[in-house]
Amino acid sequence: MLTVRDLTKIYANRFDTQAGGVREVSFDLPEGTFFTLLGPSGCGKTTTLRCVAGLERPDAGTIAVGDRVLFDSASKTAVPLNERGIGMVFQSYAIWPHMTVFENIAFPLRVAKGARPGQEEVRSLVEQALATVGLAGYGDRPATRLSGGQQQRVALARAIVHRPKLLLLDEPLSNLDAALREEMRIELRRLQQQIGVTTIYVTHDQSEALAMSDQIAVMEKGRIVQMGNPREIYFRPANVFVASFIGAANLLSGVCDGAVAPGAIGTVRLTDGARIGCLFPAGAADGQPTTVSVRPESIVFADEPLLNGTVTAASFLGGSARYDVRVGDLVLRVVGGAEDVVAPGKTVGLSFAASSAVVVG
Amino acid sequence: MNRALAWARQDMRRVIAALVGLVLAVLMLPPLWILLQDSITTTDAIGDVTGFTLAHFGKLFTDKDALRSIWNSLVFAAGSTALSLIVGGVLAWLVERTNAPFKILAYLATIISLGTPYILHVIAWLFLLGKIGPLNDAYRTLTGGTANLFNVNSMAGMILIEGFLWSPLVFLLLGSTFRAANADMEEAARMSGATVLQTLRRVSLPLAMPAILALALFVFIRAIGGFEVPALVGMPGRIYVLTTDVYEATIVVPPDLGYAAAFSVVMVVIVAVLLYFYSRLSKNAEKYHSVTGKGFRPRPFDLGAGRWIAGAIIIANFCIVLVLPMLTLLWMSLLPFLRGFSVAGLSMLTLKNFRTVFTAPGYVELATNSLMVAAAAATFIMAITALAGWIAARRGPGGWLLDQLATLSLVFPGICLGVAVMEVYLRVPLPIYGSLWIIAIAYVIRFMPYGMRYVYSGVLQLHHELEEAAGVAGAGSLTTLRRIVAPLLSPAIIAGWLFIFLVANKELAIAVLLASPGSQVIAVSIFDQWVNGQGGELAAFGLIWTVLMTVIACLFFAQGRRGGTDVFGN
Ligand SMILES: Nc1ncnc2c1ncn2[C@@H]1O[C@H](COP(=O)(O)OP(=O)(O)O)[C@@H](O)[C@H]1O
Ligand SMILES: [Mg+2]
Fold this sequence. Notes:
The complex is a heterodimer of chains A (361) and B (570). With 361 residues, chain A is of the alpha+beta class. Chain A has helices at 45-53, 101-110, 119-132, 148-160, 178-195, 206-212, 230-235, 240-245; strands at residues 2-11, 20-29, 34-38, 60-65, 68-72, 77-78, 86-89, 166-170, 198-203, 215-220, 223-228, 250-256, 264-270, 275-280, 289-294, 300-301, 307-316, 320-327, 330-337, 347-351, 357-359. The two termini of chain A are 33 Å apart. Chain B has 570 residues and is mainly alpha-helical. Chains A and B meet through strand 6 and strand 7 of A and helix 1, helix 20 and helix 21 of B.
C-alpha cells in the first residue's frame, strides 16, 4: 500500500561535519498496517515522516501510495503536499486557535480539491469524526479552551475526517502526562483498527512502539537498522544498538566456539571461560569475537547454573523484583518473581535458554 | 499534468514574492541612488546631471564648519545616549525588578510620551530652561542680578533635552530585557551572601550587558539622525550638527543639494556601519535571554527603606517627562502671549487659543490630513510587510532579498530621507511633489522596516506546524495565507499599524522638507508656528492632539498585551 524506496534527505550542516537527515530508508507497508518508526531523538524519524507528507523535498528516492507515485527523484515527480490526501497529527497538534473545534476539523473538507462536500455532508462527517475520537458535542468550543488530551483528539479527528489512505503521527503522545498517555495509547490503536487506515507512527518510546505496532522500524543515525514485528525486535535484536535501545539488555562478550550456520544454536566461550549456548541469527566462524544479548526476564536462578555470581542489589517492584548480580567483572540485571526474595550478598547460580541468548554483534 | 500543477502551486509564493519585491524595489532603491548620484555630480537648474565632481565631498572634509558639525553630531549623540540609558535604565530596573512604589507612573509617562510629537516636548523644555523660564527666573530672583544660570541653546541643553526625549523608549526596551532575565541567577547571588548592589553589579548588569550595548547603539543611531532638538535648540545658539546642516543646505536659496547629498551620504555611511554592529550585538543579546515559562514573573528585590528613595526617583522622572512639559504647554495655551510662570499671569488666563483651534479653518483640516496620511501609510506598509515578512520569516522564495529591501531605509536619518524623496519625486512627472502623497510615500519608505519587524517576529511566534497542518489538510499556499496565517498574525499586524500610525505623527524630520503650505502635517505645522512665534495656539492645538494620540497609544499597549509582539521601534 505504501512503498518507500531509498529515501534520502541530507541536511547540510554548517556547524559540524555530521550532517543530519535520513539515508536510503526503504519500507513497504500492507494496507491497514500500524507501522512505527522508533529511535532516539535526532535519528531521522520526523524527517522520514515529513518527506512522506510532502513537507520536505527528499534528495532521492521514491514514495508511492498504491499505484500513485507521490515522489520520484528519477522522474522528477513531486506531488505538492496539499494534493497528497494524507492525514497527519503534528507533535504540537497544530490546532488553529482562531477557529472552533468544528471549523478545525471541517477544514480539510472545506479546502478539498474537486467535488467539495456540501454543508450538510460536512456537518455529518465532522460529527462522525468527533464521535470517533470521543469528543461528540464539543464542536462549538473555541479551540483554545481544550485540555492537552482533547487537543490531541481534535488533531486526530482533523487528520481522519477526509478519510485519508495514510495517517501520519509524529510523537502524538509525548506532550501528554503519563496516565493520559497510557489511555491514549490504547485508544489510538483501537481507533486505527476500527477505521483500518495505514498508519505511520513516530516515537522514541520503546514501550509505546512495542505495545501498539504491527511493524517496527528501528532507526539510528538516519538509517533503518532493523525492521520486524514487536516480538522480533525485542527478542531478536539485530545488533548491539537495537538490543540496548529496546528494553534493558545484558551484553556478554566472548568468542564463537566452532563455526555456526545462520539461524542455528551455537556455543560462545565468554571471557571468564564459561560456555553458553546462543542463537546465531547470522551465523559465525570459529573464534569470531561476539556479543550476546540476554533479556533480564530470560534469566532465572538455577541449581544447575551456566554462570555463578553474587547479588549486589535487590529492589522490590511490586509485581516483580529486580536484581543486580555480579558475575566476574560484569553486573547482570535479572528480573525475578516477587515472592522468592534473594538478599544482597548471597551467591546465586544463573541460567537461561539458548534461544533467548541472541548474538547481536 | 501533476508537474505543471506542482509548479503552479509553488509559483504562488513566487508570484507574491516577485510582486512585493517589485513594489519594494521601486520605493526603496531610488532614494539611495539619488543621494549617491547627487553627491558626486553637478546639476543644472532643472536637476539634470551635467558632470561628475568630488567638490561636495571636498568641501565637506575641508570646511571647518562641516567638520565641526560632524564632531557636534557625535558629541550630541553620545551625550544623549548616555543620559537616556542612565535615566531609562535605572527606571526600568526599579520598575521591573524591585518593589519600588508608584510603578504605574513610569508606564503612564511612557504611554503618553509615545503619542506626543517630539517637537511639543522640545518646545516645553525650551520654555522651562529658557531665559523666561522658571529655572532662570528663580536664579535671577535669588541673585538679584540679570545673569542666567543656564543657557538652553547650548550643547548641554541639547543633550539634556534629547536624553529625556529617548529615556521612555530605553525604559520600555530595557524593561522587557529585565523582565525576561532569569531571577534564579540573581536569587542565587543573594543566597550566596551578596547585597543588592553587589548582585546588580556582578550578576544583573553583566547578564544584561549585551542588550544594553545593543540598545545604546540603537539610541545613538537615532540621536545622530535627530532633528527636532538640533533645529529648535541648537540652531538659535549657532550650534550645528549634521542634520541641521543638511536642512540648511536644502532650504537656502538656491539650494545646495549636492552639498546636502554629500552630508547625507556621510550620515548614511555612519548609520550603516553602526547598524551592522547593532545587528550583530542584538543577535548576541538574544542569546542571553533566559527561557522562562509563560506567565513567569521574576520575584522583585526588596529594597527595604530604600524603596521610598526609588519611589522618589520614579516620581521625579514622571514630573520631568510628563508633568512639567504638559503643565508648560497648558500655561502657554492659556495665555494670550508667551511669558514666564507668575502669579500675575494667572489673572490673564483665557481660553481664546482653544477657541481659535476649534473655529479657525486650518486646524481641523490639518488634523484630518495628518491622520489620513499616517493611516494610509500604515495600512500600505502593513499590507506589504504582511506578505514580505511572512515569506522572509519562513525562508520562502526570495525571502532574504525582500527582508533587505524592506529594511533598507533604516540607514536613512529622517532628514536625509526627506532630501532624497524630494529629489526623486521632483523628477517624477506626476503631481506628487507638493501634495500629501509625497509625505505618505516618505512615511511608507521610512517606516517600512518597522512593519517588517512586527510581522517577522509575529510569524516566528507562530508554530510552523500550524501552516503545515493546513497544507497537509489540502490547502494551497494562498488559502493557507488567507485562512490561517493572516488571522493568526492579525494581533501583530494591528500592533504594527498602531505603532507606525503613532510614530508617523510624531516625527518632524521626515516631513519638514516635503510639506508645503497646501499640504501640511502636524509636526511641521507646529514647527512653523513656533518659528513664527504663535506659541499659544500651538500649545492649545498640541495638547488636544496629545490627548487624541494618547488614546491611540493606549490601544497600542492594550494590543501588545493581547499577544502582539514585543518589538518596539527598531
Ligand atoms: N531543517 C533542518 N535543518 C538542518 N538539520 C535538520 C533539519 N531538520 C532535522 N535536521 C537534523 O536531521 C536529523 C534528524 O532530525 P529529525 O528527523 O527531526 O529527528 P527525530 O525526529 O528522529 O528526532 C537531526 O540530526 C537534526 O538535527
Ligand atoms: Mg522528531
